[in-house]
Amino acid sequence: MTHDLARYLPNEDWFGFNPRGIHGAPHTTRVLVWSARIAGTLGRQDAIRRDELLWAASVHDVGRIDDGIDRGHGSRSAAWVRDRLTSERPETAMLDLDFIAELCTWHEVRDERIERLSLELMILKDADALDRCRIGDLDPSRLRFTVATRLVTAAERLERATDRYGVITAEEVLSAAITRDDGQ
May I ask the CATH architecture of the domain 6-183? Predict the structure, then answer.
């Protein structure tokens, strides 16, 4: 499931803050991997806007200005999508950029404050939550999908294999995920 994800990998220069840090390209690549895995397992492929979901996973944190709570980083990432995604990746011009931006905007907001909690947004939020193991804050009871809870151990293994922040690249994270694909 992770073999087709290379085209979604983020460029490090998209990140305004610490591109190889804990919210940089390594993190967004793991979120991309988990988004694809959850979406591929739900069995409702005709109901999932996969391209939009995976692009949102790739860029959901590009608007960060720090590694704290950083309220508003989702909206800043959404603005980046509207302003730059198609110039950075022309193939995205055919996609619903407003929907990608919506996913970015709402990924940081608590579910009960979201008027339209789409399937894609729930997948993105679970995928993002799975990578909270990198900061010791993964709470499986808060995951929305059973399939996501089954990925906790795999998420922890992938994070341990790719936790060289400041050094590891998005390509190396994806390579590690592909290598581990058969064993997860």
Answer: Orthogonal Bundle (1.10)
